[in-house]
Amino acid sequence: MQLITSKGPVTIMLYENEAPNTVANFIELAEQDFFDGTRFHRVEPNFVAQGGDPNSRPGSTSPAGAGGRGTWIPDESGRVDKRFHFAGSVAMAKSPDPSKPGRSIPNSGSSQFYIVLEPAENLNQEYTVFGRVIDGIEVVEAIRRDEDLLEVATISRPERDYVAETLPTPGPIPTPAAGPTPEAPAAEVTSPATTNAAEAVESDASKDPETASETPSGG
Known about the structure:
By secondary structure, the chain is mainly beta. The protein is built from 2 helices and 12 strands. 8% of the residues lie in helices and 22% in strands.
């Protein structure tokens, strides 16, 4: 897959074997043009660049950081073959748990994703890594808050349908003040958008060591 940003292209390889449902979710949304015209609403230098929120589009009246596809997907961070958070890893953000500061609600990934700029071991247990940057990491490092994600385009993928298993959301969840961890959409229900997705599917590469000092949240 390729992320076409206002700073240039970023090519990512997806871990279809290790995170099949999360990959299906990303491809499904990309091919519906869901991500097109959104922005990187959260950027923390030397830590994370986060996007995928439909609320980040210009003109949206809903708060950026609280949007999603309208449903959640199950976590895949508990798999024995899971991938870890290395520099350049791509993972799903999740909704913050209002009752547990610094923690996320299980199975609350939706559409928001993030790219870590350095290892983040503390994120390995809660957040599903579903890909990694294989070209354009310097572009990710140059991204600043509110940079445009113009398109997610498919470079190549298996010829089959990608339909993610989804879960209903429990309703709106308050979005806490941004912390020192990657945040994802806070469970505001929005209809799934559509977008092109650029991705390369990796079937069986060696595991990257996980690391993270902060946590991604979203809605």
